């Protein structure tokens, strides 16, 4: 009985090693990538095309979350967590609140679509940018990072608190200034 | 760890926190002039301290070359501090009368200064970006500081949107450069051959475009006139001299130390845009009737002149840019000090508002004229010496046509600068008799304009004083 | 027994398992909703169509203008949210980085504490 369980465990471990050597099938990786990329791109399109600005805000949040998933997919787990925490959480709330601050009777047409020439212009510009970036991506031999880069938080902490200590402290000043600015601009509106 | 290297930044940050604390501790209805005085005294001490940091040998660095305190950076830091010091001096009255959040105004000015100083010394893209953001975020708020004015709020929103878009472009460029070169430090990016691949080139172009936005180079200038016109007048002064000089300081460092191997790509680009700026800025300035708006277009042209020196890409060109940036600060100080008084007393800065200034305040009219002539480059003002340095530097590198464009456009610019002088000095018709009434000029403004005029004329007659300083500044560039 | 797919190395390491967990978790509500959608009798009335607001009849417009006070709280929240982003890596590593990192973080938090003092003093935190 004991022998049986031992050999079972050995087989399980062997399976693990085999699976690790095989890695994840490419098709699954591709599928996961396209799902996340699709969420972010469709979300972004929804922001621009939506008629109702509240729906646009929701689409923006979906886009943020898609991008956060992409970060995690790329093993940048800390960046992904930040994306969820700051963008998916705080910024989304901020945007919805900013919308609620405006005074309007009906939200149905709060995000008016532009005339045809405007849309064409946007399409042309976006298309040109897309083409240029696609060409850039195809023409440059990017070096690929190793698949498993491990724990990213440690690396970020080490860099941030030693090499990049000056930018780190300047960020504190930046946050302080942002807070003061937010308060005087918001209160300025309130009082006048 | 060399904390002396970041002494200036630490001092400015401390001063900012002290001013913030003073504002919080001071009762609400008390005059906030004393806070302005605290900031000025602090800045004066820091200015004296920076003179002691000039050196001959190797430059001090902070954290292995990420932050470079060479004489070049010191020169720009002094330029920012001088600009900020005198702006606070001539805007004491304006702040007290027209702004609601007076203590915060000084805090934001100092934080913008901190951002500029960080930019001047930055030697990697992260430090550059953080410094740039600190400066621009402070300016977003400062531009909207006149709560009661709709123009000010509109300008702030426009500046925010265009600024955020340009920041996004620049950041995307930086990430592409990082992807191609594998480093964020300028000197390491420079040695990487991968910069020549499409991703590297696209990154470099985007970084350059981002800076063109910040420097309001034509055709990326559309935000500048509205923002300059709507912002509170002292803030416009700082946008024109401080923000622009900080952009040029870091732009020049990036081009010369991070992307020199791509020089054949960006040098013609720089020369072309310099010409475009000089032509477009000067021609569009002619039709303006608001003086702040006119100075916005004029500042586009001035950025063009400075880019002429950058296109020379040698020590003489750098020296000329540094010299010009400094004299432009003094010319701007004079012009905007006058405009600030006009804005406070007459409630506007259009050409009509300065009518008869020669009778109302002869000192101010004289200062305005001298400052504008310096911007136009008429001898014996400093502007003439500055343009001479710029154009000779670029002619020696073979860009004769560029110097020619610059020369012709300077001549054209005299026209609209003199239109302002004409408005101030012409005889008043009987209906305009009210404009002859004396304008109250505070003592602080008198001091500020006198310093600016003495500097403008002094540097025009003896440019060697400043030239020796610029010489010291470029000699230790990145060494 | 171990569940193999949760082990590192397959399906993108730790997060692969999380992904599968989410995918399976998504199936359950969908399984509950789709049959309900197909089987439900539809007899809409006006009463049923109005939004549910704690069981009480809704009053007024759905979208009202909020006070700026809410927004001020949200803004300050974002600032401190970002502070957390910077605090987190430090908290993970401060044991190894030592005293200097501790001082750095004190400076960082100190600067932001000035912001909190400012907000407090200027009445951004009080509810009027």
Summary tags:
heterotrimer; A: 192 residues; mainly alpha; Four Helix Bundle (Hemerythrin (Met), subunit A); C: mainly alpha; 4 helices
Characterize the structure shown.
The complex is a heterotrimer of chains A (192), B (479) and C (128). Chain A is built from 7 helices and no strands. Chain A has 192 residues and is mainly α. Chain A has 2 domains: 1-130, Four Helix Bundle (Hemerythrin (Met), subunit A) (Up-down Bundle); 150-192. Chain B has helices at residues 7-25, 33-51, 71-98, 102-121, 125-143, 150-181, 186-190, 198-214, 224-230, 233-258, 263-286, 291-312, 315-346, 357-360, 362-376, 382-396, 400-425, 443-461, 464-475, and strands at residues 61-62, 67-68. In chain B, α15 (362-376) packs parallel to α18. Chain B is globular and about 70 Å long. The mean pLDDT of chain B is 91. Chain C has 2 domains: 4-49; 68-122. Helix content of chain C is 66%, strand content 0%. In chain C, α3 (68-97) packs antiparallel against α4 (99-121). The longest helix of chain C is centred in the middle third of the chain and has 30 residues, at 68-97. Chains A and B meet through α5 and α7 of A and α1, α4, α5, α6 and α8 of B.
Which CATH-level-2 architecture of the largest domain in chain A? Up-down Bundle
Give the class of chain C from helix and strand content and strand pairing: mainly alpha
The H/E string of chain A reads HHHHHHH
Uncertain segments of chain A are none
In round numbers, the mean pLDDT of chain C is 80
Amino-to-carboxy terminus distance of chain C: 59 Å
The biggest beta sheet of chain A reads: none
| Unreliable sequence segments of chain C | 1-11
Q: For this structure, what is the CATH class of the largest domain in chain A?
A: Mainly Alpha
Give the overall shape of chain A: extended
What count of domains describes the coordinates of chain A? 2
Please give the share of residues in helix of chain A: over 70%
Shape of chain C: flat
Q: What is the terminal separation of chain A in angstroms?
A: 83 Å
Summed up, the domain count of chain C is 2
State the major sheet of chain C.
none
Beta content of chain A: under 5%
